[in-house]
Amino acid sequence: MDMNFTPEEIAFRDEVRGFLKDKLPESLAAKVKGGKRLLKADYELWHKRLNERGWLAWHWPVEQGGTGWTPIEKHIFEEECVAAGAPRVVPFGLNMLGPVLIKFGSDEQRAHYLPRILNGDDWWCQGYSEPGSGSDLASLKTRAVRDGDHYVVNGQKTWTTLGHFADWIFCLVRTDSESKPQAGISFLLIDMKTPGITVQPIVTLDGEHEVNEVFFEDVRVPVGNLVGEENKGWTYAKYLLTYERTGIAGVAFAKSGLAHLKQVASKQMKGRKPLAQDPLFASRIAQVEIDLMAMETFNLRIVSAAQHGGVPGVESSMLKIKGTEIRQEITDLLRRALGPYAAPFVPEGLDEGYNEPPIGPDYANPVASQYFNMRKVSIYGGSNEIQKNIVAKMMLGL
Amino acid sequence: MDFNLSDDRRMLKESLSRFLQDRYGFETRNEIAGSEQGFSRELWAQMAELGLIGAMLPEEVGGFGGEGFDVMTVMEELGRAIVVEPVLPTAVLGAGILADAGSDSQKALLEKVISGDLLLAFAHGEPESRYSLSEVRCRAAQVDDGWVLDGQKAVVLNGDTADKLIVSARTSGGDDDEAGLTLFLIDANAQGVSRRGYANVDGGRAAEVTLEDVSVAQEAVIGTVGEAFPVIEHAIGRGILAVCAEALGAMDAAKDMTLEFLQTRKQFGVPLGKFQVLQHRMVEMCLEIEQARSATILAAGRMNEDRRTREAALSAAKNLVGRSARLVAEESIQMHGGIGMTWEYALPHFAKRLTMIEHLFGDADHHLERFATLSQAS
Questions:
Q1: Architecture, CATH, for domain B230-376
Q2: Has A244 been annotated as catalytic?
Q3: In whole angstroms, what is the distance from residue A200 CA to residue A209 CA?
Q4: A96 close to A27: Cβ distance less than 8 angstroms
């Protein structure tokens, strides 16, 4: 039993901290920490800074332009980035498509797409969910029919995160409707500029535009854009779901959320005393802090097992459930900490350059919206109920 | 970073596990638990021979362990068999205090403790003190050649079978001051000590101990007069770690029994485990057990840290284990249905132990409040 980082790992952490101090603009970190709206250019700037250092694709192998970091180094990097207020790295090209192309793509596909992902030439989005296919993803209906050197794609994808910024979409499409649902799915790369594609925004309950619907009407896609073999797409999609999920618990996000909650509770007043000193509220904070401490250790146990050659399997599902519950609890407490000042809805106040004085405390504006937004984490990426099904099957054999 | 057990601890765990599988089946356990003494002298001697007590103590006093992870390794195995022998009062609390603060001659007694020939009990809690560590009304007054003790001690684990008692008493200060506490090592049969022993609801025994004009020599003092609080807190801290680890073993066992039941018991023509509502409840149990395990590992790893860090981790673990143990106990019984309500079946005895562990050294609410206080002080 040894729960400490090695001197080399501590040196690595210091190197990451030094990089973040030099290269992460203070104004950008302030936007992230203040819950302000990020522009496409903000993400692109941060990707560029990371790429200049060779740290953008930290999950990829060295020969493809990745870092070759150990699981513990990846964990340290992710923790430090969140703690410093770095924007998240948009995962679709880097953490999702990249690993699939590296494992299942052709040499031509790797040579063409991977450098373009690193350089920011292509912004990718993900085309999995459909209006009729949520948790039951394998029931998807978007069809791709072979016609000479092309597939002709018809159908609709939904919940396409940041699809309005995207140049390309990787899609699961049905190429065989005769066999079992899972056996008739292919993995297709589609240029968003192809005629027949329409993107429509979906405004979520917090009033924000982050996700979209994407419609395909007779969209012609060259057969060279098929990844791997036809009808094997489900295997590739599943590979994605088990790949690199050490960050899935969101420990670092929860820790920064908890620190923010404590700060807010020390400023909000109840009965002329800081809310943080109210025994009931203090115990609510203590409860989630205890849960988070335990989950952090749980996460480190999994990271450390990966460091020693283990492959995280069902533990990812367990971390996803616990991690999302804790993050939701923290945003719930933040919302309640504000009292009446959780109510004002001033979305324009989240934009850069908004100069009006805030209504209520300056930290109040994004809080209720973030609480509502955070409801998504127990739904996406396989809802928590689906994760429980996975654990019941894989770990308990039920 | 490495969360694997060292080779020594793995070997100890394996030999203990084999021993308990061979010698400590559920029926044996229940017979022992219901016996007059509440434990088996014979098995106690064999456990001592296996090195179970020595593993709880550092080398300086003749043991071969004494670290948080040693306590955790042993107690988790004991929990899998809900062992009732007095490991907690003798090896963890009593021996721990003597190793921590005892005089040379007091430490010399540890040889007999390690060999299984001397039983200890820690008489600290009082009828009105609940889980407070500093609320001590039992008094010790200095006389020419020693001290005279008067007071009452409540729910003293194995108080009726122990050879020697470690008694906390107030030598100065107000009823709940941390300063002014002193520990005494006294013979359990000393003049003026009366013990009313009884069985506990989850197996094992305890006693109400009354001290009336109990005269002890100066040499009976453990550590420094008036400065026992840190020793008490440290001992209870080791006790918290021990019962958290014991609960992990018992929770795992209860979970395994429930899982097997769901796989074999059929209703409506299918095994119960086919019902999603039960699958998800099993998964929730597993999740909470992993959280409890993580919190206990964290506490074990922080046993040598500064006071606030250590005690916060211990309170976090006890709070989490308190909540998860109750969940596992109640859910296991519920998912078993009627059979989970019977005395002759093993599961409910695990559930009872899991529930009653919350009543040792502070329940989930007590440790939540304590964690919040420690957390705010940082």
A1: Up-down Bundle (1.20)
A2: yes
A3: 10
A4: no
Q: pTM for this one?
A: 0.95
Across the interface, whether the CB atoms of B286 and A308 are under 8 A apart is answered no
Query: Is B298 in Cβ contact with A297 (below 8 Å)?
Result: yes
Cβ(B64)–Cβ(B55) under 8 Å? yes
Q: What distance in Å separates residue A283's CA from the closest CA in chain B?
A: 6
Chain B positions in Cβ-Cβ contact with residue A259 (cut-off 8 Å):
none
Spell out which residues of chain B touch residue A318, defining contact as CB-CB under 8 Å: 286-287, 290
**CB spacing of A294 vs B292 below 8 angstroms:** yes
User: Does residue B330 carry a pLDDT above 80?
Assistant: yes
Name the burial class of residue A311, with classes exposed (0-12), middle (13-18) and buried (19+) by CB atoms within 10 angstroms of its CB: exposed
- Fold of the CATH domain B7-117: Butyryl-Coa Dehydrogenase, subunit A; domain 1 (1.10.540)
Residue B50 has pLDDT above 90, yes or no: yes
In this prediction, residues A169-198 reach a mean pLDDT of: 97
Work out the minimum CA distance from A308 to partner chain B, whole angstroms. 8
Q: In Å, how far is B188's CA from the nearest CA of chain A? A: 39
Residue B170 distance to chain A (closest CA, Å): 30
Q: Which residues have C-beta within 8 Å of that of residue B361, sequence separation ≥ 6?
A: B131, B236, B239, B240, B243, B318
| DSSP code string of A251-302 | HHHHHHHHHHHHHHHHHSEETTEEGGGSHHHHHHHHHHHHHHHHHHHHHHHH
Q: Which residue of B has its CA nearest to A286?
A: B372
Burial category of B163 from C-beta neighbours within 10 Å (exposed 0-12, middle 13-18, buried 19 and up): middle
Facing A294 at nearest CB: one of B274, B276, B294:
B294
Whether the CB-CB separation of B192 and B216 falls below 8 Å is answered with no
What confidence tens digit (pLDDT) does each residue in B155-165 have? 999 999 999 99
Report pLDDT digits (tens) over A232-266.
999 999 888 766 565 788 999 999 999 999 999 99
How high does pLDDT run on average in chain A? 95
Tell me what ipTM this predicted complex has.
0.94
Residue from the list B1, B273, B295 with its beta carbon closest to the beta carbon of A3: B1
Per-residue pLDDT at B65? 94
Q: Return the DSSP state at A140.
A: -
Domain locations along chain B: 7-117, 121-226, 230-376
Could you tell me which residue, B184 or A59, shows the higher pLDDT? B184
Q: Please give the C-alpha separations between residue A206 and each of A256, A372, A373, B191, in angstroms, as whole numbers.
A: 21, 6, 6, 74
Q: Name the residue in chain A with its Cα closest to that of B274.
A: A398
For testing contact with chain B, the best of A2, A8, A289, A398 (most B CBs within 10 A): A398
Average pLDDT over residues B246-273: 98
Residue of B nearest to A301 (CA): B3
Domains in chain A with CATH codes = 7-89 (no CATH), 122-233 (2.40.110.10), 245-394 (1.20.140.10)
Q: Over pLDDT 90: what percentage of chain A?
A: 90
pLDDT digits 0-9 by tens, B298-328: 999 999 999 999 999 999 999 999 999 999 9
